[in-house]
Design a protein that fits this description.
The chain is an alpha+beta fold. It has helices spanning 2-9, 13-20, 32-63, 72-81, 85-120, and strands at 122-135, 144-156, 161-173, 190-206, 210-224, 243-259, 262-273, 280-295. It has an 8-stranded antiparallel beta barrel with strand order 1-2-3-4-5-6-7-8.
């Protein structure tokens, strides 16, 4: 009994060590059960968030498929539907070049139209010309060369259409040869012709530097064949008698502009007259200087 009481009175070292152990919150060793419960709670809370995040990522990738996740057929379709960057750049450069060329063409057309308007938008046009004509002075005589002066005035109603009043004179010498009436005193009497004619003119081709027109005129002609025959009637020398008759002219006019209101003119023409009850079809040309003034 005494030994048991003594043993009970002796302090147990293991019990003292357990009493001295502190809790984890006070710096003691962690309790395994408590740590496990906390880890389980943390996993339980994190799992729904991870599942929701994964679902959102999968829906985004399915709505916007990348080339790596798409099937080969989808990759081919995307490649066909999406033009390459080089093709887009080439198309843009081509459109830019077309746009620049179109602007250049429009500016050129505008300059050309302005130049044509400046040159041919005049109301009045006058000219002073010299001329040449091959004319038959009698029924059986050879052709002679007429040299001429010509002047005229044209009133234009627009850039193309106008009406011309023309006056001209022709001068030449007719070869009549030797005959009993001239008695060898002369063989080349001088003759002359004067015409007043008028008619329409139409510019059918216009350019800033030149134009081509057609003109038809008709009017009066006077032939002076007796002025140098020493009183001998012209028919005795083989010439047409002095007379008044008709005159018709058809010509094509080319004008070369040296300034908007000044041009050089050349007009080949057919000239018809009716002396001696016959028709003389003569060919020649006139050429000279044109002056324009007055705006329409």
């Amino acid at each position: 009994m005494g030994n048991e009481s003594a043993a009970a009175d002796v302090p147990n070292p293991d019990l003292g060590r357990s009493a001295r152990e502190l809790s984890h919150s006070h710096g003691g060793n962690p309790n395994p059960m408590v740590s496990f419960r906390r880890l389980a709670i943390l996993l339980a809370l994190s799992l729904p968030a991870m599942l929701a995040l994964q679902a959102q990522s999968s829906s985004s990738s399915s709505s916007n498929p990348t080339p790596s996740s798409a099937t080969p057929d989808q990759n081919q379709t995307l490649a066909q539907n999406q033009p390459s960057g080089d093709a887009q750049q080439t198309s843009g450069e081509t459109q830019g070049q077309i746009s620049v060329q179109e602007r250049i063409r429009q500016r050129r057309a505008q300059r050309r139209s302005t130049a044509i308007h400046d040159a041919y938008d005049h109301r009045w046009e006058s000219y002073m010309d010299m001329g040449y004509l091959r004319f038959t002075p009698g029924p059986s005589l050879q052709r002679l060369t007429y040299y001429a002066w010509e002047t005229g005035l044209t009133r234009f109603s627009n850039e193309r259409l106008g009406f011309t009043l023309d006056g001209r004179g022709y001068f030449g010498t007719a070869y009549v040869g030797l005959n009993t009436y001239s008695q060898g005193h002369f063989t080349r009497p001088a003759i002359s012709q004067y015409d007043v004619i008028g008619g329409p003119v139409y510019r059918f081709y216009l350019q800033p530097k030149f134009s081509i027109s057609g003109r038809a005129m008709a009017g009066w002609a006077h032939g002076n064949f007796s002025g140098d025959t020493n009183g001998i009637p012209p028919p005795l020398l083989g010439l047409y008698p002095d007379a008044n008759t008709f005159a018709v002219s058809a010509s094509v006019i080319g004008e070369l502009n040296v300034a908007p209101n000044i041009a050089l003119k050349l007009a080949p023409e057919y000239f018809f007259t009716g002396f001696g009850s016959t028709v003389q079809a003569s060919r020649g040309f006139t050429g000279g200087l044109v002056y324009r003034w007055g705006k329409q």
